[in-house]
Amino acid sequence: MDTLTPEGYATLCQWEGRRLYVYLDSGGAPTIGIGHLLTRAERSSGKLCIDGATVHYHHGLTLAQCDTLLEEDLAPVSGAIHVRVHVPLTPHQQDALILFAFNVGITAFAGSTLLRLLNQEDYAAVPTQLRRWVYDNGVVVQGLRNRREAEIALWMQGQSV
Predict the structure, then answer these.
(1) CA-based diameter of the chain, in Å?
(2) Which listed residue, 25, 109, 134, 145, has the most CB atoms within 10 A of its CB?
């Protein structure tokens, strides 16, 4: 995994889980693998494209397919971090931002106060900003609080740039 340190990858897998069959995430969205939200086209066709191959996911995924799908899902997230963050990051700080953006989405990350403050070199603001992202449908979710604290722990490991 080029985009995450081994610790970042383990943390992501811990929070997302690895499911071989479709399940509903905490927000009720159909998901499979390691946090892969099924698109409308994937839901209607019953198929995924993994490493260039068509996979009928109703039969379940293999562990290797889950890992490959995660790598494919992380590529645009990592790219967004690279393009939108204009200050130096340590590997653990990058991990924290990738985990966060993977969870909330690239668009939300790109428009966040967190990113704006970080790009103003306000590294110390990141933990406080992360703690703001604990709502799902207007309700505080303890699982999101816990996840943000794990992201903050990664961020703090990379404190010095």
Answers:
(1) 48
(2) 109
- From CA 124, how far away is CA 77, in angstroms rounded? 22
Please report the domains of the chain, with CATH numbers, ordered by start residue. Answer: 6-157 (1.10.530.40)
Q: Which residue is listed with tokens 């969205």?
A: 29
Q: Helix H segments across 17-141?
A: 40-45, 63-84, 91-104, 106-110, 113-119, 126-130
25 is catalytic: yes
Model confidence at 1, pLDDT cuts 50, 70, 90, reads: very low
- Among candidate residues 16, 42, 71, 95, the one labeled active-site is 16
Q: Which of 25, 72, 73, 122 is catalytic?
A: 25
Look at the block and give the residue holding tokens 């931002």. 97
Q: pLDDT tens digits, residue range 34-81?
A: 999 999 999 999 999 999 999 999 999 999 999 999 999 999 999 999
Known catalytic membership, residue 16: yes
Rounded CA-CA distance 78/29 in Å is: 23
Burial class (CB in 10 A: 0-12, 13-18, 19+), 94: buried
